[in-house]
Design a protein that fits this description.
CATH architecture: Up-down Bundle
Largest sheet: none
Number of helices: 21
Number of strands: 0
CATH superfamily: MFS general substrate transporter like domains
Order of helices and strands: HHHHHHHHHHHHHHHHHHHHH
Helix content: over 70%
Strand content: under 5%
Number of domains: 1
Radius of gyration: 21 Å
């Protein structure tokens, strides 16, 4: 009597196929390494902002210098839609693998160059101008990196475990942020204040170069995604103008994704970039305590995200998103209240409360970036949606949050900023979003 074969998945492989699982693990590593590099740089820049501020800007007003440092990130992120759209076009035309190889090369080189820049005291305003130019290039490339990496992982994944596998793409971002925080804290501990301000700040940025070499090696070893190969094997599905096609046929899911992802961008980057500076600058917590408390909360969230992905693969995307939006409205002000006690324990407790809505939102918004769009325009449509919403608000949120606290003398102004986005997301998810967790990747999810 012959054994019964495991059921076939939508891509024609069996769920128990060990070679398929091995390929998926390689795809996760290859896709995630670029996200790690991007967020390592972003987190490092955010945590080192108080050190970079007097290095690249006049030191007469420290608050203005810090705001200017954050403003460079915000300006650079405004270029992400343009860069992401161009990268997405390449990804839909020549493939995910080739495109992602180039993005990690450019990100690594530009980040390392930041570590070699002349300062304001050496070349005047040419210093911040060069810093801005490098951040703009990074922003343009990064606008396609995360979208492409998520598409790459999801297109390799087993259909019923897409959120679980996509959670590792989200985790790579938090690993990058955690590594950025740890590197910033280590640099602050190892170097004296004069040495850190003079030259020590450069070393963490230069470390990105060998990380990028590892990423290139990983991405060269993995094949193109089966989903993209299947969709383009006869050449008929390769869209000649994927950007135009994305706007024509995918405008509804683009708007839905924008309505949902703004909330997560504000939630995440108020926490990982702005909040440590608030703990130090406003509440007077020692810098190492602010960074350490933030790192602890990130470390707690990381093992929880795969569990969130598994839960979403069982109950769907919409229940998770709705729960997360309610958490933004109800739990974030409680987190801020706890943090205002001004102790190390309160800083940790406040951020552990803060990560509850992160649990319900982070990996789910990530997998929706791929599931909402059809294969033929996934990279382009995803890049348009992600960069028109998440990327812009990711970049401006630390600046806006700092400005709100400075203007209203209350961190609850930041909560109002987040709550408006959460209410918008609740309306969009409840009214306009189509459930995607059991959908076919290649098909359109919205009727035209």
């Amino acid at each position: 009597m012959s054994a019964v074969a495991p059921p076939a998945t939508a891509d024609g492989t069996t769920a128990a196929d060990p070679e398929k699982r091995k390929a998926i693990r390689r795809a996760i590593g290859a896709g995630s390494i670029g996200n790690f590099v991007e967020q390592f740089d972003y987190g490092l820049y955010g945590y080192m902002a108080p050190v970079l501020a007097p290095t690249f800007f006049p030191g007469s007003d420290p608050a203005v210098a810090v705001l200017s440092t954050y403003a460079i990130v915000a300006i650079a992120c405004l270029f992400r839609p343009l860069g992401g759209t161009l990268v997405g076009r390449w990804g839909d035309r020549v493939g995910r693998k080739k495109t992602l190889l180039w993005t990690i090369v450019i990100m690594g080189v530009t980040t390392a160059l930041i570590g070699a820049l002349p300062t304001y005291h050496q070349v005047g305003f040419f210093g911040p101008v060069l810093l801005l130019l490098l951040r703009v290039v990074q922003g343009m490339v990064s606008g396609g990196e995360y979208v492409g990496a998520v598409a790459f992982i999801v297109e390799w994944a087993e259909p019923k475990r897409r959120a679980y596998y996509a959670s590792y793409a989200s985790n790579s971002c938090f690993f990058g942020i955690l590594a950025g925080a740890g590197t910033a804290a280590l640099a602050s501990a190892v170097f004296s204040e004069p040495a850190l301000s003079s030259w020590g700040w450069r070393i963490p940025f230069l470390l990105v170069l060998p990380l990028s070499v590892v990423g290139i090696w990983l991405r060269r070893r993995i094949d193109e995604t089966p989903e993209f190969v299947r969709a383009t094997e006869d050449g008929a599905a390769v869209v000649k103008a994927p950007i135009r096609e994305a706007f024509r046929s995918q405008w509804k899911p683009i708007l839905v994704y924008c309505g949902v992802s703004v909330m997560l961008a504000i939630l995440s980057y108020s926490w990982v970039t702005f909040y440590p500076e608030y703990l130090t600058g406003t509440l007077g917590l020692p810098r190492w305590m602010a960074l350490a408390s933030n790192a602890i909360s990130v470390a707690v969230l990381i093992p929880l995200l795969p569990l969130a992905g598994m839960l979403s693969d069982r109950i769907g995307r919409k229940p998770m998103l709705i729960t997360g939006a309610v958490g933004c409205i109800v739990l974030v002000p409680l987190a801020f209240y706890v943090g205002e006690q001004g102790t190390f324990g309160a800083a940790i407790a406040s951020q552990l409360i803060y990560i509850v809505p992160e649990f319900f939102l982070t990996g789910i918004v990530t997998v929706c970036m791929a599931e909402l769009f059809a294969t033929r325009t996934r990279f382009s449509a995803g890049a348009i949606a992600y960069n028109s919403s998440f990327s812009i608000f990711m970049g401006i949120t630390p600046f806006v949050a700092s400005l709100l606290v400075t203007s209203f003398h209350s961190i609850y102004a930041v909560w109002v900023y987040l709550a408006v986005a959460a209410v918008l997301a609740l309306v969009v998810v409840s009214t306009f979003m189509t459930e995607t967790y059991r959908s076919h990747l290649g098909a359109d999810k919205f009727a035209r």
